[in-house]
Amino acid sequence: MKFINSNRLWAKTLALLAVCATLFSFSSYRGGDSFSIYLNNKLVFEQHVHMKGGVKSFELGKANYNDQLSIYYSHCGQPGKGRSIAIKDENNKTLKEWHFGDASNKKSSMNCKVGDILDLQKNKGGKLQLYYSSKELPKGQVLAAIVVDGSGKTASR
Hints:
- There is one protein chain.
- The chain has helices at 2-24, 114-119; strands at residues 33-39, 42-48, 56-61, 68-75, 83-88, 94-100, 110-113, 126-133, 141-149.
- By secondary structure, the chain is α+β, with helices and mostly antiparallel strands.
- It has a five-stranded mixed sheet. Strands 2-1-4-7 form a four-stranded antiparallel sheet.
- It is elongated.
């Protein structure tokens, strides 16, 4: 009789472990830093910072000159303090930096004119890096690579 009860207990324990392993195998993206980039209120892409996937890139061209780029960055669901966006060249030299006040809510965007970014390239083409920094992230975080293209199309990669 003891042998039958211990087998049932063992089977129930294994079943419970299997259920727990299955439930915890799915990852949740709650918490952690995340950001999204919009061009004229149209989502270009969004990403959770802790995900390994490399730096994404998107293209901007002459046809986007009068457009607006908006960046939203969330620190574990909270807005940042002392936020800034910088554009750096391929040699990691800062070409331009925009400073923004403390965000009052997580929907506070950081906006810059695409024309200001395109003017940094002076018709040379190539890649620029889009960086974010704040009091919470003083060393900064590269958000995306911007491919300056003369064709004027905008595409994410």
